[in-house]
Every structure is written in structure tokens, then in C-alpha cells.
Amino acid sequence: MENYQIFFPTSSTSSASPFSSKITNSHDFTHMSGSKAEIGIPRSYDKGVMESGTSEDSESNMKSGKKKGDKKIRKHRYAFQTRSQVDVLDDGYRWRKYGQKAVKNNKFPRSYYRCTQPGCNVKKQVQRLSKDEQIVVTTYEGMHTHAVEKSTDNFEHLFRQIQTYSNPF
DNA sequence: CGCTTTTGACCTGCGC
DNA sequence: GCGCAGGTCAAAAGCG
């Protein structure tokens, strides 16, 4: 592992970004590409929720035909930017890439990962800023229902802080 | 042999 | 109503 430089929403320590650490939505990520290093903790999401309950199907909604039902606003998204040369940051969990799409405002494609742990449908997406290719935006979606299987206590500590930040949400 | 990655197609939501 | 952008799936290939 290398030493990653993490940018936290606490602007008190951010000395390189006079930008206010505003709360940005995930969709605003494309707009904030014009800024420098900025972290955005998205708030409650409106739609796009695939889980509508506690114990039922997790996917297979858009399989054959569509399923329309109640959409619960239950999405935890933590987005933070890291300064690394690698796209994927090994946070101790097992991720399986399930998609890759090119963003319009970014020259670099966005990768979609999913936790391979059964029952743990946590998703994350990594995106590299076209302005600064050293900045990698990692967006976590969901909460892990299992423990970390690797000894990345360092990153675990980081993750705890992230969860603390998103606690009021 | 099993799992992960890759890539194209498909679907949905939103804006115009 | 159509087009665009984003997100997901699924089949095939590659690798350990």
C-alpha cells in the first residue's frame, strides 16, 4: 500500500482548497470537476433506490420488465477524494467490477464496483478527475454487513471517520 | 475450475 | 416525444 492523501470535509485542515466544503449531490460531481480538491458528502438521495425493504430481492428489478413500487430513500453514500496513482483503493473489502462508463465531463471512465460478500450489496464507484488525474473520487454506497477481512486497520479508521461524518444523514 | 474483468447492450430518468 | 447521460446486466474471456 502506498500512503494516500485523503481530503476530508473539514475545511479547517484543508489548506489547499479555499472552497467551502459544501454538501454536493452525486450528480454534482460532474460539475465540481472544475474545482480543485473538494469532498462532497451527498445527502439523502431522492430516487434510484433498488432496495425497497429489509429482506427481499436486492436486484432483478429491471430484469424482464420493470418493477414499480415504493421507493424508499435509504441510501448511504459517502464520497471522498483521494490523491493516489491507482484507481482502486483496497479498503479491505472484496470488490468485483460490474461496469465501467465514461462520464461526459471526464475523460476518464468511471468504474463501478460491488461488494462480493453475499448479502452485502454495497456499491462503490471510482472516478478520476479529468482536471487532476491524480485525484480519484471514490463514492461508497451502502453499508457493509460484515467485517473487514483484511488487516487494513489504517483504512478502517478512515472509514469510521467517514461513517461518523455521514451519521446525521 | 472458479472467480474477476471486460465490453457492449439495455433500461431508466431527466431535460429540452 | 425524443435525445442524452448515467447506471446495471450479462456473456465471454482471462487469470490464478
UniProtKB/TrEMBL annotation:
Boundaries of every WRKY domain copy: 84-149
Broad class of where this protein is predominantly found: nucleus
GO cellular component: nucleus
Pfam name, any one: WRKY
InterPro entries: WRKY_dom (IPR003657), WRKY_dom_sf (IPR036576), WRKY_plant (IPR044810)
Biased composition (Low complexity): 7-21
Region spans: Disordered: 1-76
Keyword annotations of the record: DNA-binding, Nucleus, Transcription, Transcription regulation
Signal peptide interval: none
Lineage top rank: taxon: Eukaryota
Subcellular location: Nucleus
Gene Ontology molecular function terms on file: DNA-binding transcription factor activity; sequence-specific DNA binding
Keyword set includes Transferase: no
Keyword set includes Repeat: no
SMART domains for the chain: WRKY
Biased composition annotated in UniProt, kind: Basic residues: 64-76
Protein name per its UniProtKB record: WRKY domain-containing protein
